[in-house]
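Quick one, C-alpha cells below. Sequence please?
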C-alpha cells in the first residue's frame, strides 16, 4: 500500500501532532498539513497495522482558501457599511450646521 495514491479523502478533524484525520477502507489516515473540511488526493508514505500516514498531493477542496475568501468578503462588506455610516454622519452634521 506504500506510495499508493488515494483521491477524495475528506479530513474530519485535527489530532495529536497536528495531523488531519481521514478514513479509507476501514483504516485511519493521518494526513500531514491538512485541516478539517479539506478534501485531498494523498500518497501513502507508510503504513501501520490500522493506520496510514500520508502526504497531500493535491487539494480538491482547500478549507483555508475558502475561509480566506469568506474573510475577504466580510471585510469588504464591513468597509461598505462603514462608508455608508460615515456618509450618513456627515449628512447629519451638514443638516445641523
Amino acid at each position: 500500500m506504500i506510495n499508493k495514491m488515494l483521491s477524495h479523502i475528506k479530513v474530519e478533524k485535527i489530532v495529536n501532532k497536528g495531523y488531519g484525520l481521514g478514513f479509507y477502507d476501514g483504516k485511519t489516515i493521518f494526513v500531514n498539513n491538512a485541516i478539517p473540511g479539506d478534501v485531498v488526493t494523498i500518497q501513502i508514505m507508510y503504513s501501520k497495522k490500522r493506520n496510514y500516514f500520508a502526504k497531500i498531493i493535491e487539494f480538491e477542496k482547500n478549507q483555508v482558501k475558502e475561509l480566506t475568501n469568506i474573510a475577504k468578503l466580510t471585510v469588504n462588506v464591513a468597509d461598505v457599511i462603514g462608508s455608508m455610516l460615515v456618509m450618513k454622519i456627515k449628512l447629519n452634521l451638514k443638516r445641523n450646521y
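The chain is about 35% helix and 40% strand. Residues 17 and 32 are 9 Å apart (CA to CA).
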